[in-house]
Fold each of these.
Amino acid sequence: MIQFTIIVIGIELIEAVFQLLNRFDGVVSESQIRHALGLGSRQEIKELNQLLSADKRFINCEENKWKCAPLATLIEDKPLREVTFIITDIETTGSIRGKDRIIEIAALKVNNGDILDSFEYLINPHKIISRQISKLTKITNSTIQDSPSIEEVLPEYIDFVDNGVFVAHNSLFDFCFINSEIRRLGINSLKNQADICTYRIAKKLLPKVKARGISGLSMYFDYPLRDRHRAMPDVKATHFFLHRFLQELEKQNINSLHQLIDFQTDKLGKNELRKKLKKQKKKKNYYSRFNKHFS
């Protein structure tokens, strides 16, 4: 159990570092990263260095200074009309990656607005689904008792994705949760480690719309959403949003995948980074906050 907890914390840690560096066009010192995440012990510092060194998303520019690898090294740029998007949604037993489990996954393979293929499974998490989650999703323990396990489904999903580009509404949850499960199970990773988030795009394109969740955008666009919090209905709604957004972005001369990724990213300037780091220093230790869920 201790070894498993260390692995999970490492997954959470490296994703947190990526989210920090990906928003800053510059070099960040290892000391700044440690302070931002509340790391202090020698073991934590050692593990941070090992994780950064082993992940192709990070570049060690000089001693103890890091930055994100150029986008071109992470994913090939293409005209958006040529990109195959894998629009995905998951339902889970909870929000804690490494502890909670996926109970449903659905995806559409889309190119130039056309649906090429679909993927959909209920999954047996081999743990109890709470009443709260069952009420939200209408997925009960009896619903999934004969369903396949994540060990069976996830490799099929990775094959389905292939060279496609992951898309989700609030991809920070879905993409990171799926990657967390991939690493926990020790199976082949997704080929492209970049994602598109229709929530973040909505934030940029529709700044006056305050309700930017799937329900809120469905109301805004008058989209007939049914069975909210089930994976495939949410995927179909996200497909609708993505199509509308790409049409609007084309008018703004955003026509390539790299342009789209840059558009959705809220970049941090030096002053904003300092404020974020200062705010993070006031929080409790990152390891302690996460580790309490495994005590």
Note: Residues 231-251 form the longest helix (21 residues).
Amino acid sequence: MTDAAEMRHPFLSAALTFMESYKGVYSHGMMVELSRRYPKIDKQLHGLWKGGKISTMDPAKLKTDDIKEYVIFLRTRGLRDTSIAHDICAISNVCKYTGENNCVDMARVHYPLLFMSHRHVRLPVMERPVFDKFFTIADSLTSDAGYMMIRAYAVTALTICAGLRTQEIQHAKMEFLDKDLQFIFLDHVKGKNTYGTARTVPIRPECVPIMRLYLSIRDQNVNSIYIFANRQGKFLSDDKLRQDKDKVCVDLDFHFDFRMCRRTYAQYLVDEGFPIDRVSVVLGHSNTRTTELAYARPRDDRVVRQIVDSWSKTNKIGGKK
């Protein structure tokens, strides 16, 4: 941006500087999303400032009441709570980066009702019939299916069976994959160099056959440090991963995304009796609240069945002693 543009759009200028600083920390997909989000926010703030609704567009000088006016503006436009939360989080990051400005946090304290969200609805997982169908197809593949189709199933299988985020599947390295395919060490995680920490993740055994098939033909097609790579040896782009996933969606006649694969991994662990704190660890969450809110919790029918079974075993049903 030119000096004149920076003066007219101080928020966008600061946002671009923030994004430049976080290259390599945020995933490519996140950077693309922010490159769309920040110009939109800048335009909205500029309109509010010209209309006298907010005092400034400078993120270092934004005040609590400015954030209040922005949230009111978004709500009058009928935006969903999740969209508002994403925009507010984006503003908060730039404000804190530019001038250690905690105006968003203060606005949450002073105007809590503005920030109240509707009850969170956990998104669905891949239920057992679809899960079983996927691995039936995957296990039936042979080298005659071709490298690209086998890779599509291997990518999807490892995502489901290790609960990996997109950037984690992209940067997963051959040297960190256990030779028996029981676990994988992830050195490139969400929030790398900030809040994220490298971790080791157990791999579900259903993944082993398709991964062994993929690895048996991999070296004939790519030469790379990454498990999944393009012909030039670079990790797969978001678009290539999506294309691989879409091939599987067609075969299954079922639409899913990689977030569903990650939720499936988490929910199945909970279904199998693993404590939520351990599930949270392998997902790379800093606390169990995120795990329970968005990924997995004991299913109602299973909880009821466990309680009834427990009472039956202790002979407390129907007055028995």
Note: The first helix runs from residue 3 to 8.
Amino acid sequence: MTQEPLQDTLPVQPNFPPPKFLNAPLPHIGAWTQYFLHAEIPIMASTAQALEELRAEEDDVDANQLTAAIQVDPLMTLKLLSRMASLRRPGSNTETESITTSLVLMGIGPFFRHFGLQRTVENWLQDQPEARQGLQHLLTRAERAGQFALGFAVHRADTDATIIHQAAFLNDFAEMLLWLHAPELMVKIRDAQAADSTLRSSAIQKEILGVEINDLRQALMKLWRLPELLVNISDDRHAERANVKCVVLAVRVARHSAYGWDNAALPDDYTEIAALLNASERVVPSFLHKIDHPILEAATLGGRITSEEPGEPTEPKEPEKPEEKLD
């Protein structure tokens, strides 16, 4: 995927105080979750600009238009879902909550009143080029994982396809937050993995952060009371469930193919995907190549690649059918 140069463009940011980064691990997972419970979360400059343009026409804006601006940005999606959770009564049903339904329930006016001018990632990480690069890699991977997951769900005729897509898209949100708030620690993890590819990621994370990122992700999702189905689908400890398997395999393929399709781990992925889709393993690679393209505006630091005209439907579109039928 072609990346635009990482540069801070619009909107113009006020004189925010410089961020205070964590340079040492917190003592335990409870300390990490409490930190992120109150931590500021910046969003993509392109998303902030889109929201300001819509704010200027608030009286004419509907939930679909806001969804189009928010759904391309995992950080803004996270902020919206966690805000909506704070407004719910304890024990209320959250299974089918999506970005659009959250906006409808919250209301357009209350959304704009709560979410004022947003600080941008580009501003937040202006002096952290390695963190910007690390975060951009995750944004690209998240977009691809979401596309693969949606492709699997559509092929299986899964009624939860939209939430499956969202779960894969948000899978790396905890790692994104760590790049934003603890870039020095994340650089150490990256360098340790580069120095010895045989080391398990979880072991490196435990050594440097004191926690595993997957555990932090699940703890934050529960703390923020994110939609129940989203939390369940995102829990890879329940990978025997087909909807969870869609997410797990989508994230895995996006990671293994991030630098090309010659990764030695991919053949094992193809075997599992064939079983999930009840398909011939032979046609899985062509199916993945066919659906490996953006379904949304690509979230890119410093700019936005437009794939939709304003007013078009905002739900993720079904991927194209492969020329050779999966059987």
Note: The longest strand covers residues 298-300.
